[in-house]
Amino acid sequence: MRQVGKINQALISVVLFILVMFLNGCGSEGTPEKPAEGTSPALDRPFDGATLPDTSEPVHPKGERPGLPEDINWLTNEEDPVFASPEARKGGVFRDSLISFPMTFRMVGPDSNGSFAGVLRSNAFSLIGIHPNTMNIIPEIATHWAFGKDKKTMYFKLNPEARWSDGYPVTAADFAYTLEFMRSKHIIAPWYNDYYTREIDRVIIYDDYTIAVVGTKAEPDLYLKLGISPTPKHFYGVLSEDFVKKYNWEIEPNTGPYQIREFKKGKFVKLRRKEDWWGKNMKYFKNRYNVDEVVYEVVRDSNIQWEYFKKAKQDVFGMTIPKYWYEKSKTPVVEKGYVRKIWFYNDTQQSAQGMWLNQDKEIFKDKNLRYAFAHAMNIEKVIEQVLRNDYERLEQGFMGYGPYTNPHVKARRWDLLKVEEIMTASGWKKGEDGIWVKGPNRFSVEVVYSLDEHTPRIVVLKEEAKKAGIELRLQQMDGSAMFKKVLEKKHDVAWMGWSTSLRPQYWEHFHSANAHIPQTNNITNTDDPEMDRLIDAYRNSLDEKERIALSWKIQEKIHETGCFVPTFRVPYVREACWRWWRLPKVPGTRHTLSLFDPFSSTTGGLFWYDKALYEETREAMAAGRAFDPVTLVDETYKIR
Length: 640
Hints:
Structural class: alpha+beta
Shape: globular
CATH superfamily of the largest domain: Dipeptide-binding Protein, Domain 1
């Protein structure tokens, strides 16, 4: 899995959006030799300015710093529209919940790609970002950037005000150190090792606040790759074999607006806003990241989370699941207007949500049986009966990517006759219980999933699959435990979704380099020479038209393998919040995935706490006085 910087995180599927767009998370205790549990040395011991990090390491054979090209054309962007509200105010505590605790606070290495990693990565800012509505480059840690004539180099001027959580300045050395860190065998992160070797050539230091990042090859979307994040050299220093254990629960200094302040294993994680955060007055960050503290409490059942929300122990609740939007919202706190419902349409890439088949399992080594499995999944019935037709069928794993999406790839539909035809031709027969058998083999597979709210969906699939002669054994697990099992490639079928990117990324999910080994995203163990050839060509192509053509072919090839059964796509966000939480006039951006994401540099931190509304609401509740119920539907970015 990967931490590559905000642009790269958007580009490359980074953080698991565990089980269909419900962000859950994790946290943990310190170890005896570290500060007491619940404290953050990155905040408790601020940098006093006495010692600067060493930035003197040589960057070319003679150890001399090179000069910048004379004809460099520096660019910046202060012209795009802001998407935060000038009415926003600082203050308040935002309370949310986690289904499970993280297995580590590391952002690389074993067990580091759970959903809470999204919180950590969102507070690890990069050189540049992408405006969520215009898709233009905007400043983050770099104030200016320029493109090299070789089409594989970008130059950056760093903001001298940028600081780590512990007060150390962010300098050129921290970006050079990123390559050393990510290439190290000690982090036990093959994806990062490969990416930062194959895709990033070097970082050139011109002075403490001017660098160049050089890719290994020219390509059309160079800025999506080279906007890397810094790594705190003063914090990690020289890595050793004990990296994974040593830093499992360390709180790394970050560059974002929040930092973990307190945590207790299995119970909660608290993050505090940095009052003197270096980026607070920048155009695209101003009036954002408004709450003083974000508290995540571990509540391992979504039904209990709903009860917490109704008692105002939790400030927001995701209502994408129809039963909450239509039925459970018929409750006094909503009907009396204390809680508001919001339906916000977005226009963004669709998560690859569905059923991932492990081809290393005997039953799925036969492509025909994978086809039969897909035709036995009655996704349309789930959409109609369980999801009230609010969801749409996902046709493949790469929808919403503009010209990179192949519109001709369509998901296999439920078809009992095709299942019968395929299974019979493959030499299988129906057993006494109606399930297909062949010798000692029985078409019975385990489906692992995490969220209790998804049980009704999978139960319908189970009953429909039984009609087709396939048995689904449902195994609900804690989110972290499930993800670990899937990454260890011990599953039959994984019911889950992946985060999206600005461009389709195939290597980590479908290249044989990531098959048959644990802790990689190729959870289907796809191992196909032709797929490898196409993916390698896609990664190496310099021509956008060629990349688009290759993208179409790869999507056709993935469909041909039958290793992924697409399920649903949801082109909107539905959430409920207590009345004292406010949002801009247009509540989100074109690419918003959560209206109440506190952290993301590109779409998060737009909401704020209104103390007057809080007091008014509490007084009304105590007096039994109601407000008009509010359901806001915003179609600003609805796909027409």
